[in-house]
């Protein structure tokens, strides 16, 4: 299912709660995350229905529900740019070792190896089209978010989950436990959530759950809950 949010954002959801996004630019779409396996054709059709190609593909983090259709998309759109961080590239190559500057916590879930290679390595502060890359580790060490500098839309990946009552990932929700079960380090995630709130986003879009307009209050409440339960 595809839904539009504002001028530039199209949310594409499978199985009710697994979302990827198309972000409209003048020359085509940026695909943020590649969803579950088997999503490629429906993502391409959504872009095609809008009359624009997918010319950039980027990732919030290396978990399988965000990289599931990466290799399939790369096969269908080989000329697009493929952009992710060096840390994500490391996970996608099968290397699960921790870096010295990270919390030495256990990875609950490891990522599947993907054969697609980045055409460009990105880091915090870089731009992918109109999207500014924001480091937001916690759910995973490699996690990044994307802030659309045109209209304040924040694509927060799994830094927040908005299935039911919005939460910082790692805070348990019985009706959708998967992101919590897969979360690496909650204190780091709370720091990142505060950094994302400080951007004053106009709209919060996440990997799992509804798009929230004017999200400051729900982000603040989720952060406070996370601090209480940490
Ligand atoms: Zn996820």
CATH superfamily: Ribonuclease Z/Hydroxyacylglutathione hydrolase-like
Strand order of the largest sheet: 1-2-3-4-5-6-7
User: Which CATH first-tier class would you pick?
Assistant: Alpha Beta
| Count of discrete structural domains | 1
Q: Name the bound molecules.
A: zinc ion
Mean pLDDT: 96
Structural class: alpha/beta
| Count, helices | 7
User: What's the architecture, going by CATH?
Assistant: 4-Layer Sandwich
Amount of helix: 25-40%
Rg of Cα set? 16 Å
Number of strands: 15
CATH topology: Metallo-beta-lactamase, Chain A
Short description:
With 230 residues, this protein is an alpha/beta fold.
Q: Overview of this structure, please?
A:
- The chain is α/β, with parallel strands linked by helices and 230 residues long.
- It has a single domain, classed as 4-Layer Sandwich (Metallo-beta-lactamase, Chain A).
- It is built from 7 helices and 15 strands.
- It has helices at 40-49, 64-67, 70-76, 86-92, 178-181, 186-198, 216-229; strands at 2-5, 9-14, 18-25, 28-32, 54-58, 81-85, 120-122, 127-128, 131-135, 144-148, 153-155, 160-161, 167-168, 203-205, 212-213.
- The chain has a 7-stranded mixed sheet. A 6-stranded mixed sheet has the order 8-9-10-11-14-15, with no helix packed on it.
- Helix 6 (186-198) runs antiparallel to helix 7.
- The longest helix has 14 residues, at 216-229.
- It is globular and about 45 Å long.
- The termini are far apart.
- Bound molecules: zinc ion (ZN).
């Amino acid at each position: 299912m595809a839904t539009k949010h504002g001028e530039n954002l199209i949310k594409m959801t499978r199985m009710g709660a697994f979302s990827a996004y198309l972000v409209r630019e003048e020359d085509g779409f940026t695909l943020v995350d590649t969803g579950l396996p088997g999503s490629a054709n429906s993502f391409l059709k959504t872009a095609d229905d809008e009359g624009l190609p997918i010319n950039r593909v980027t990732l919030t983090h290396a978990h399988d529900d965000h990289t599931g259709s990466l290799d399939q998309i790369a096969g269908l759109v080989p000329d697009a740019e493929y952009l992710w961080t060096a840390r994500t590239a490391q996970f996608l190559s099968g290397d699960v070792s921790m870096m010295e500057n990270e919390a030495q916590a256990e990875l609950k879930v490891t990522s599947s190896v993907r054969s697609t290679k980045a055409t460009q390595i990105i880091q915090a502060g870089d731009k992918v089209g109109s999207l500014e890359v924001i480091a937001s580790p916690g759910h995973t060490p490699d996690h990044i978010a994307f802030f659309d500098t045109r209209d304040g839309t924040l694509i927060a990946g799994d830094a927040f989950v908005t299935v039911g009552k919005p939460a910082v990932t790692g805070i348990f929700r019985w009706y959708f436990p998967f992101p919590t079960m897969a979360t690496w380090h909650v204190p780091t995630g709370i720091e990142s959530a505060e950094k994302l709130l400080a951007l004053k986003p106009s709209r919060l879009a996440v990997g799992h759950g509804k798009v929230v307009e004017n999200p400051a209050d729900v982000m603040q409440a989720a952060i406070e809950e996370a601090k209480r339960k940490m």
